[in-house]
């Protein structure tokens, strides 16, 4: 292990007590006080010490510190906490005074061109010098306790021996905890102008040696004054904290004389910092200035000092220093170490350790009577070297053995063991020092701060450092705010950090084993003082040298924040800039070059840590603004106006009443703070500096205009509506007209002369704060004038005064433009003023596509020219302006009829003779051109039932041609003429809706078409909630019973249900109870019961099912699907109407469904429902094939149309509902699915093809066209009561079972099996049945046929018998091949009974469909039963 290098603060402290004549001699020669002169000769080179084992330890440099006894006496009585606070404030004041000069010298270089401050920083060196200059003894450690006392007199005194005697007998004013174990040394200065001759001076020193011992020295000096010696550059002594006595009554420092007698030539020092709370030193400081004749100052902490001493005097003083240190001080310290080590070793033996432990645990009475501190009156145990004289109390060495390890009166911790450890450390006896320090550490009396300086680098040193710092601060209370240690603890931690950084080798200190920079951060803790900030800054500097940039940047931020709070803004700005610079260094990214090419990014593109950099830039801007640099502040604040990263730290967290952040309060927006600071700073800069802001060339770092979304809108274009919806309408027109002609729909995209068109600017606020853009407009130029910067005179452009954009808001702002002559225009830029302060211009050009045509273009990024917004202005031709007559906000009820009108104005120069209109797929409207009574019935008394003929096709609606002569007085619309188009809107779907209408028109038969758009937004609110349910009926009059529930979902409106109509291709419905008008109150439900029986009089049912099976078979087999439409279908309609008349101009109570408008609305509503259901059930089948695969109606379903009215508001409408599917179905597509699955799969290189085909087969198998269910419904006669006299024995109870075949297409075999003995283990109140007689009943049910089986129950006692313990087995057969299904009404019970009997004719051949089902009695409380009453008991 290399020999440690101890800091200068861990060196012997020598105090000097000089007589007044010494001061007079030195002042007469223009020299500083004696301690400062001797300090200039420290450190002493090449000093050798010896350990306790007599091993020589060479010291290249041996430091010695000198102080004046008077200064120590004045300072040692001050409270340590108060002095530590003054020390921290004094260091902060010195940093504040010197930071501006440091900023000027940071970039200075030496003769070799290297930076002077490459290995350290001036602020850290200043803190080190201030800490090392502390010479006041402390009660916690003995480094500053005097090791030696020099009594100095001169031969110019009237009686030198008397003066020396007075000094030796002087009582020292030290607290009792100051260790006075020291070496007394007597120094006699013999100047050349002394009245005593040299022989007399020799005799004087001999007398002194005889009286006081050999620790004496005669120092002859010439001290010439005319002329003065040349100044000698010396190292400036460390600064020292002024004492409180010197602050209260400052001493008059000797003023330097002129050139003829000046000993020290000071340069003017800067005035004290006004913000510093501490007074300053006496001026001029003796050795901290340099002569004005010297060279210019170098960039160091102090430029050094000069001392005007002759070379002979320098040699004499150097010889004295060698004599005093090497032959007196060091041997005396060695002897102290030897004797103290003997005491220490004896106390560590086992008996002594046992006794000491006993005394420590159980106490000792003699401990209180032991002396607290040693005094100079004790009996000597170590004499001076070869001394023959002892003089009682004035011995040169005080008692050593009397030093005990008890606590002192002032709370001191300096005892003999600690002094032993300190002396051994100074002398280089590290083996002994480490053992003693370890003992002290274990006993809790210090040592952890010194062990890292003496031990080899290891992880244990970090633990020593942590322990040293933790013992300073003590236990910290648990609280929300950071704990701030007392001033004394802060200063001691600062001193420890300085010692560690100075005493440890830089490479070991920064090694991964120690990580010494973390020690500095721990020493700084959370104190808000400039020295602790410097600790963070130096830790950041060391981390930066290790290339730990992120850690260094963080600690620079902490240091800057602390300095800003203390008012040292210059250094705070420097640290903020350092952190900003480090956070902008990109982290190493070892990625493939292909990654950057694929992401279209540059490897060097790095914006820094966006979560931290804005906060740093904001602090820099604020500091620049407060220091007067408004231009720099404006630049920083402007750069902060960019999108804020959400995971960034909060800049100013909200504080509650007790200062803690509250999570319940909203977090303030950082963008709002940045924006407000920019506005204030920029407004102040414009007011104070005038037009100087224009020279800054400020540019907004954000953009608001979305160039890719900016569009030009002409009068015929709609502002609202989905662009995809408009494209769909245009495509529908193109597909429709391609079958009628070759004319295309013109999309000229040209404006007309003197016609206003708009540039729709899409503005997006990227900030999270509201902004205002003033004077928003666009820059327009002619296509040929590429260099023009102003808008031409014949173009008028609108200027929007103020546009307010909310946080993260996106708005479309139309800018009106009007051109007075035909021209080709280009919209180049958007122009506005940011908050009416900063003009800004944003280009509206979009970058062209990337070119990949040539090899060079593929290798290098090459783009096509930018895409500009171009507008062609031409003479007005065909123009049609369309708008709604009433454009107020429209709120409708679901299903409501609303009469609307649109105005058509021919604003062009040519007539319009042909007009078409297209609407969206889900929009239901009826054009009333030429048909004013479209909702009225054609007859005065419509029947209660009617038959509708439906095309049964999912084909979309075709465009409707509006005859102009039906809405206008002439067959064509001339230029400037207007007309109206009335229509009825049916609000079928609730929610926010957009009614998009595309009008297509042209002048003549062969002319091209033009189009215009109009949009109306309306809101549809639900009014009725309709639900249906169906169940099989036991009655022979109907097969099913349908329950309809109508709920009024409004809050305050009564809704009258006027009529309920049913539509079905296979079922005829009728009400089971008389019906009247029902007024449904809010949140109430009205019920309606309908009976359904099969209806086979219509056409198209079987054809529809065969059509679906044939088309799906072709689809699953992979064959091309032909474009044929489904067959037409007849629908039977039944109306259940009220007797109250409401419909206008209608004489009957029934609303017929065959009126054009009503039939159109029903067809559109059904098409929307079927299309949505088909798309959801078959997502893998293309939507364009749905119309050729599936029909509009499923023959099995029953649809309901509910007509409602609000008489008080004169509003009416209808709601279409797809009801339940009735009748049993028997997987009619089973063979199609099986054939598709058994088909040999075609090879395909894409796995998606196979998965898609499997998904299509699965969807077909589970769709509504392939339903499968049990066709037989079982009904047991329930609730019968049989009376019997059980005195005559058991009886037979008749039980009837009715079976109904719900299938309209397939026969079924039914087998009823009854249990002869069901057992008697029951837990309910029913008796178990036992059947007798025929236990198995079999029958064959034709489609829609019923059969009743009669059985007998054997009752052995009275009670309620549960009619259970039976099973019904059903087997479905195929329809007969020799005859189609009979279209006849449902058979009567007599016919059914007859059909169940064996027939003599040839029955049809039974063919099973391999579908079998099993039914058992229903579980639960609704089980059927029969009651047997014992009449014998009643009698």
Given as residue ranges, the uncertain stretches (5+ residues, pLDDT < 50) are 248-303, 351-411, 647-664, 1140-1147, 1379-1385, 1388-1401
Beta-strand level of the residues, as a percent range?
Answer: 15-25%
| Computed structural class | alpha+beta
Mean pLDDT reading: 82
Biggest beta sheet attributes = 6 strands, mixed
Radius of gyration of CA atoms, rounded to a whole number:
55 Å
N-end to C-end Cα span: 125 Å
Write the layout of secondary structure elements.
Blueprint: E1 13-18, H1 20-28, H2 34-39, E2 44-50, E3 56-62, E4 65-68, H3 69-76, H4 80-105, H5 122-132, E5 148-154, H6 160-168, E6 183-191, H7 198-212, E7 216-221, E8 232-234, H8 244-248, E9 305-307, H9 311-347, H10 350-362, H11 416-427, H12 430-442, H13 451-454, H14 459-473, H15 487-503, H16 506-509, H17 516-524, H18 530-545, H19 549-566, H20 569-583, H21 593-599, H22 613-626, H23 630-639, H24 670-689, E10 711-713, H25 723-737, E11 750-752, E12 756-764, E13 771-782, E14 795-797, E15 800-805, E16 810-819, E17 823-834, E18 838-843, H26 855-859, E19 869-874, E20 880-884, E21 890-893, E22 897-906, E23 914-919, E24 924-927, E25 945-950, E26 960-961, H27 964-967, E27 978-986, E28 991-1002, E29 1010-1021, E30 1024-1032, E31 1040-1048, E32 1055-1064, E33 1067-1071, E34 1078-1080, E35 1085-1094, H28 1101-1117, E36 1129-1137, H29 1156-1177, H30 1186-1189, E37 1197-1206, E38 1211-1221, H31 1230-1238, H32 1247-1261, E39 1272-1276, E40 1280-1284, E41 1291-1301, E42 1308-1314, E43 1331-1332, E44 1336-1341, E45 1346-1355, E46 1359-1362, E47 1366-1373, H33 1389-1395, ...
Parallel strand pairs: 1-4, 1-5, 5-6, 6-7, 11-19, 21-29, 40-49
Antiparallel strand pairs: 2-3, 8-9, 10-12, 12-16, 13-15, 13-17, 14-16, 17-18, 17-19, 20-22, 22-27, 23-26, 23-28, 24-27, 25-36, 28-29, 30-31, 31-35, 32-34, 32-36, 32-37, 33-35, 37-38, 39-41, 41-45, 42-44, 42-47, 43-45, 46-49, 47-48
């Amino acid at each position: 292990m290399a020999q440690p290098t101890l800091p200068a603060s861990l060196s012997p402290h020598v105090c000097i007590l000089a007589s007044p004549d010494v001061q007079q001699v030195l002042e007469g020669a223009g020299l500083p006080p004696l301690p400062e002169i001797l300090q200039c000769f420290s450190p002493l080179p090449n000093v050798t010490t010896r350990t306790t084992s007599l091993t020589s330890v060479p010291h290249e440099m041996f430091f010695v510190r000198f102080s004046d006894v008077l200064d120590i006496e004045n300072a040692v009585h001050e409270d340590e906490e108060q002095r530590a606070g003054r020390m921290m404030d004094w260091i902060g004041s010195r940093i504040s005074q010197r930071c501006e000069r440091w900023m000027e010298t940071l970039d200075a270089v030496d003769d070799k061109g290297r930076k002077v401050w490459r290995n350290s920083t001036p602020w850290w060196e200043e803190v080190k010098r201030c800490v090392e200059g502390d010479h006041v003894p402390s009660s916690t450690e003995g480094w500053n306790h005097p090791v030696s006392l020099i009594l100095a007199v001169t031969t110019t005194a009237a009686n030198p021996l008397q003066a020396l005697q007075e000094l030796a007998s002087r009582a020292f004013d030290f607290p009792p905890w100051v260790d006075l174990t020291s070496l007394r040394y007597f120094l006699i200065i013999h100047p050349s102008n002394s009245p005593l001759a040299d022989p007399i001076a020799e005799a004087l020193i001999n007398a002194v040696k005889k009286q006081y011992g050999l620790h004496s020295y005669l120092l002859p000096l010439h001290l010439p004054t005319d002329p003065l010696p040349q100044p000698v550059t010396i190292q400036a002594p460390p600064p020292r904290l002024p004492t409180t006595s010197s602050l209260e009554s400052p001493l008059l420092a000797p003023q330097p004389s002129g050139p003829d007698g000046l000993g020290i030539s000071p340069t003017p020092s800067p005035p004290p910092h006004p913000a510093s709370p501490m007074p300053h030193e006496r001026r001029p400081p003796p050795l901290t200035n340099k002569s004005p004749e010297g060279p210019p100052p170098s960039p160091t902490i102090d430029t050094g000092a000069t001392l005007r001493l002759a070379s002979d005097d320098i040699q004499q003083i150097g010889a004295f220093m060698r004599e005093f240190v090497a032959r007196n001080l060091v041997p005396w310290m060695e002897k102290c170490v030897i004797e103290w080590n003997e005491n220490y070793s004896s106390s560590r033996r086992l008996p002594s350790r046992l006794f000491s432990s006993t005394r420590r645990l159980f106490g000792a009475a003699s401990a209180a009577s032991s002396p607290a501190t040693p005094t100079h009156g004790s009996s000597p145990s170590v004499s001076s070297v070869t001394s023959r004289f002892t003089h009682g109390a004035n011995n040169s060495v005080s008692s050593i053995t009397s030093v005990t390890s008890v606590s002192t009166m002032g709370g001191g911790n300096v005892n003999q063991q600690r002094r032993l450890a300190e002396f051994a450390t100074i002398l280089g006896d590290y083996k002994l020092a480490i053992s003693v320090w370890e003992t002290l550490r274990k006993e809790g009396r210090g040592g952890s701060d010194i062990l890292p300086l003496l031990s080899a680098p290891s992880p244990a040193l970090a633990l020593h450092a942590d322990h040293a710092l933790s013992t300073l601060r003590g236990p910290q209370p648990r609280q929300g705010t950071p704990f701030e240690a007392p001033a004394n603890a802060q200063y001691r931690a600062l001193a420890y950090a300085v010692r560690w950084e100075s005493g440890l080798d830089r490479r070991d200190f920064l090694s991964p084993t120690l990580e010494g920079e973390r020690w500095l951060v721990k020493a700084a803790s959370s104190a808000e003082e400039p020295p602790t900030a410097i600790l963070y800054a130096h830790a950041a500097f060391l981390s930066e040298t290790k290339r730990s940039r992120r850690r260094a940047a963080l600690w620079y931020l902490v240091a800057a924040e602390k300095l800003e709070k203390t008012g040292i803004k210059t250094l705070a700005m420097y640290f903020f800039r350092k952190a900003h610079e480090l956070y902008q260094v990109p982290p190493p990214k070892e990625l493939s070059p292909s990654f950057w090419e694929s992401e279209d990014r540059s490897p060097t593109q790095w914006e820094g840590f966006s979560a931290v950099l804005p906060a740093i830039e904001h602090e820099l801007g604020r500091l620049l603004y407060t220091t007067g640099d408004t231009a720099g502040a404006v630049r920083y604040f402007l750069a902060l106006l960019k999108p804020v990263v959400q995971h960034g730290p909060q800049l100013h967290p909200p504080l509650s009443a007790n200062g803690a952040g509250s999570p319940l309060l909203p977090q303030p927006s950082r963008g709002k703070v940045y924006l407000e600071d920019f506005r204030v700073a920029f407004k102040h800069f414009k007011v104070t500096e005038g037009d100087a802001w224009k020279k800054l060339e400020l540019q907004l770092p954000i953009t608001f205009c979305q160039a890719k979304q900016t569009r030009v809108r002409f009068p015929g274009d709609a502002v609202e509506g989905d662009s995809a919806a408009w494209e769909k309408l245009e495509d529908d027109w193109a597909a429709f007209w391609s079958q009628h002609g070759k004319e295309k729909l013109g999309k000229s995209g040209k404006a007309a002369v003197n016609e206003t068109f708009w540039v729709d600017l899409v503005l997006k606020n990227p900030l999270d704060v509201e902004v205002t853009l003033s004077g928003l407009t666009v820059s327009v130029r002619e296509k040929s004038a590429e260099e023009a910067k102003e808008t031409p005179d014949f173009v008028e452009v609108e200027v929007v005064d103020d546009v307010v954009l909310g946080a993260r808001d996106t708005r479309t702002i139309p800018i009106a433009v009007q051109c007075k002559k035909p021209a080709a225009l280009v919209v180049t830029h958007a122009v506005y003023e940011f908050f009416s302060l900063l003009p800004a211009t944003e280009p509206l050009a979009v970058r062209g596509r990337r070119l990949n045509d040539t090899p060079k273009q593929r290798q290098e990024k090459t783009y096509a020219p930018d895409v500009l917004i171009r507008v062609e202005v031409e003479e007005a031709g065909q123009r049609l302006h369309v708008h709604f007559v009433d454009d107020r906000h429209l709120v409708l009820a679901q299903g409501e009829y609303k009469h609307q009108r649109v105005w058509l104005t021919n604003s062009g120069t040519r007539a319009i003779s042909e007009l078409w209109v297209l609407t969206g797929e889900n929009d239901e409207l009826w054009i009333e051109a030429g048909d004013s009574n479209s909702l009225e019935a054609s007859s005065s008394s419509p029947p209660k039932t009617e038959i509708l003929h439906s095309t049964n096709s999912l084909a979309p609606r075709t465009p409707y041609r509006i005859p102009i002569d039906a809405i206008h007085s002439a067959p064509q619309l001339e230029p400037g003429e207007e007309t109206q188009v009335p229509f009825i809107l049916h609000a079928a779907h609730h929610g926010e809706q957009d009614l998009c209408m595309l009008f297509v028109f042209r002048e003549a038969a062969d002319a091209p078409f033009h189009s215009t758009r109009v949009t109306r937004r309306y809101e549809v609110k639900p009014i009725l909630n309709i639900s249906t349910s169906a169940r099989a009926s036991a009655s022979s009059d109907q097969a099913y019973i349908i329950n309809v529930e109508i709920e009024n979902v409004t809050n305050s409106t009564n809704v009258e249900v006027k009529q309920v109509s049913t539509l079905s291709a296979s079922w005829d419905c009728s009400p089971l109870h008389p019906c009247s008008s029902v007024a449904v109150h809010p949140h109430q439900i009205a019920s309606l019961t309908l009976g359904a029986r099969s209806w086979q009089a219509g056409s198209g049912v079987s054809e529809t099912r065969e059509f679906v099976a044939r088309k799906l078979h072709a689809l699953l087999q992979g064959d091309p699907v032909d474009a044929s439409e489904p067959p037409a279908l007849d629908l039977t309609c039944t109306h259940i109407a009220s007797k109250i008349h409401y419909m206008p101009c209608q004489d009957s109570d029934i609303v017929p469904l065959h009126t054009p408008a009503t039939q159109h609305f029903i067809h559109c509503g059904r098409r929307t429902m079927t299309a949505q259901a088909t798309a959801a059930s078959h997502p893998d089948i293309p939507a364009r094939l749905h119309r050729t695969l599936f029909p509009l109606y499923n023959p099995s379903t029953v649809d309901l149309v509910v007509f409602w009215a609000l008489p008080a508001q004169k509003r009416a409408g209808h709601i279409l509902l797809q009801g339940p599917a009735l009748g049993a179905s028997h997987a009619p597509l089973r063979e199609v699915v099986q054939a598709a699955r058994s088909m040999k799969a075609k090879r395909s290189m894409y796995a998606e093809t196979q998965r898609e085909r499997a998904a299509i087969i699965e969807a077909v198998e589970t769709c509504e066209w392939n339903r499968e269910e049990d066709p037989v419904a079982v009904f047991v006669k329930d609730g019968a009561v049989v009376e019997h006299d059980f005195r005559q024995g058991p009886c037979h109870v008749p039980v009837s079972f009715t079976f109904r075949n719900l299938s309209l297409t397939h026969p079924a075999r039914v087998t009823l099996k009854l249990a002869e003995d069901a057992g008697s283990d029951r837990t309910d109140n029913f008796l178990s049945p036992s059947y007798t007689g025929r236990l198995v009943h079999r029958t064959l049910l034709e489609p829609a046929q019923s059969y009743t089986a009669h059985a007998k129950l054997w009752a052995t006692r009275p009670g309620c018998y549960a009619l259970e313990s039976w099973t019904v087995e059903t087997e479905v057969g195929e329809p007969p091949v020799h005859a189609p299904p009979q279209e006849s009404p449902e058979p009567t019970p007599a016919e059914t009974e007859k059909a169940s009997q064996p027939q003599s004719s040839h029955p049809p051949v039974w063919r099973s469909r391999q579908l079998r089902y099993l039914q058992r009695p229903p579980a639960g409380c609704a089980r059927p039963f029969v009651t047997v009453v014992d009449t014998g008991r009643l009698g």
